[in-house]
């Protein structure tokens, strides 16, 4: 029996009414992927206001590793609602904040003493990781990477690479931020091996300290172990370890932005575990609490203690609801085999994507780390010219057939998969079947 149930074209009549209200009351700036409105979500399924049920391969941009409305999280939230909503940790403290900090200190990479504090969003976590790094080192410079995405607040936006839509017209940006190239093996010149790509970029990193800013003026390097908005571009262990060595050589802190890669998505609790690299600071959000707004910065205890009392924080940071939800999410990941499930999902998706790649010349590359999978569409495999238009057509056709998907990449030509890890094998296969049908129908 099909889990997809499409009763109307998109947008349906009820969604169309809501779209009119949206246009009248909400600015055009907030983007929307699918032209409809949610009514109910469960697991990997999402039903809209017109009764259409979709298989969700987007997972709220990676917020739903444990699925829509997981019962364990819902029950924990109901219990917390009966106790208190938000006394604010800065006024009267509460135990769930401490319990979640202890848990993150235990499960993030490294066995050194750590401390954690909480905020509301991934961008806020990045902003505060930068503040902490500067305070701890007494340095100002922050290095990020091409195609990286770290958020929409000003420091986070300054560290973000893609100009449109994230930065266009919003400058000037924060000073003392610098950008280095990140490996993109698919787009390397012909005949250049991944090892040669890595070695060349690491040499450029060292040269940067001679030509642009001295290493002793750099507080931190921030990187995504898999670039999310940048197109699910996966760096090698050789590169990540090389960056760690450079940071150690110059006394620079390494910040791992695990906002999209964390909490089981890549087949490990955190993606940095794939590389055997221990960051000094980790930023987390998205799937930490099944979609509730909470984020975290975890780091070496002595670094986290660098800011004085009152120098970091926020009124809503670490809300009790977010904390109890996050504790249940972590318990689900640890107890229900969902981290291993991510590896199985990724293998199944990659196999199907490679089969599609053999049939359709427009699929230039397929890549995956755990259940963080993507395909890159091109106009020609030889030139690798990005095909943004075909990507948009594929997504729109999938949406009309009941599969929610999103694009990514600096060229907007990457189809990314962030399905909930609780998705069933049948649901995964059904969604992938729809994608296969769409590619067959859109064949030039």
Automatic annotation (TrEMBL):
Catalyzed reactions: (S)-3-amino-2-methylpropanoate + 2-oxoglutarate = 2-methyl-3-oxopropanoate + L-glutamate; 4-aminobutanoate + 2-oxoglutarate = succinate semialdehyde + L-glutamate
Keyword Transport: no
EC number: 2.6.1.19, 2.6.1.22
Keyword Transferase found: yes
Cofactor dependency: pyridoxal 5'-phosphate
Keyword terms, alphabetized: Aminotransferase, Pyridoxal phosphate, Transferase
Metabolic or biological pathway, per its Swiss-Prot or TrEMBL entry: Amino-acid degradation; 4-aminobutanoate degradation
Top EC class of this enzyme: transferase
CDD domains in the record: OAT_like (cd00610)
Pfam families registered for this protein in UniProt: Aminotran_3
One of the GO biological process terms: gamma-aminobutyric acid metabolic process
Any one GO molecular-function label of the UniProt entry: pyridoxal phosphate binding
NCBIfam families recorded: GABAtrnsam
Family: Belongs to the class-III pyridoxal-phosphate-dependent aminotransferase family.
Protein name listed in UniProt: (S)-3-amino-2-methylpropionate transaminase
Organism: Paenibacillus whitsoniae
Gene field: gabT
């Amino acid at each position: 029996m099909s889990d997809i149930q499409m009763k109307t074209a998109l947008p349906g009549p009820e969604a169309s009414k809501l779209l009119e209200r949206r246009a009248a009351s909400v600015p055009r700036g907030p983007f929307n992927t699918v032209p409809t409105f949610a009514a109910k979500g469960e697991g990997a399924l999402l039903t809209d206001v017109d009764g259409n049920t979709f298989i969700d391969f987007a997972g709220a941009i990676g917020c739903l590793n444990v699925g829509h409305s997981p019962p364990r999280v819902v029950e924990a939230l109901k219990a917390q609602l009966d106790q208190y909503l938000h006394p604010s940790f800065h006024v009267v403290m509460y135990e769930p904040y401490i319990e979640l900090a202890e848990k993150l200190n235990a499960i993030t990479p490294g066995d050194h003493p750590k401390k954690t504090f909480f905020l509301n969003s991934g961008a806020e976590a990045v902003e505060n990781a930068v503040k902490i790094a500067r305070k701890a080192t007494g340095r100002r410079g922050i290095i990020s990477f091409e195609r990286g995405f770290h958020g929409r607040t000003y420091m986070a936006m300054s560290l973000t690479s893609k100009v449109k839509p994230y930065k266009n017209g919003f400058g000037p940006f924060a000073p003392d931020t610098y950008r280095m190239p990140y490996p993109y093996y698919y787009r390397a010149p012909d005949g250049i091996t991944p090892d040669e790509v890595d070695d060349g970029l690491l040499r450029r990193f060292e040269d940067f300290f001679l030509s642009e800013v001295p290493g002793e003026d750099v507080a931190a390097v921030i990187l995504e172990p898999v670039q999310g908005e940048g197109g699910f571009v996966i760096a090698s262990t050789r590169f990540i370890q090389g960056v760690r060595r450079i940071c150690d050589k110059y006394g620079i802190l390494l910040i791992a932005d695990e906002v999209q890669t964390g909490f089981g998505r890549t087949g490990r609790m955190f993606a940095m575990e794939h590389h055997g690299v221990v960051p000094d600071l980790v930023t987390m959000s998205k799937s930490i609490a099944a979609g509730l707004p909470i984020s975290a910065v975890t780091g070496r205890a002595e670094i986290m203690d660098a800011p004085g009392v009152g120098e970091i924080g926020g009124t809503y940071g670490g809300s009790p609801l977010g904390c109890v939800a996050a504790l249940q999410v972590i318990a689900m990941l640890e107890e229900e085999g969902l981290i291993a499930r991510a590896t199985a999902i990724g293998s199944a998706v990659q196999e199907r994507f490679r089969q599609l790649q053999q049939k359709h010349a427009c699929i230039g590359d397929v890549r995956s780390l755990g259940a963080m999978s993507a395909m890159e569409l091109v106009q020609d495999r030889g030139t690798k010219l990005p095909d943004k238009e075909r990507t948009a057509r594929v997504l729109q056709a999938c949406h009309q057939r009941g599969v929610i998907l999103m694009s990514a990449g600096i060229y907007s030509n990457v189809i990314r998969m962030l399905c909930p890890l609780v998705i069933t094998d049948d649901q995964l296969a059904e969604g992938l079947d729809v994608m296969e049908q769409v590619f067959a129908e859109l064949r030039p």
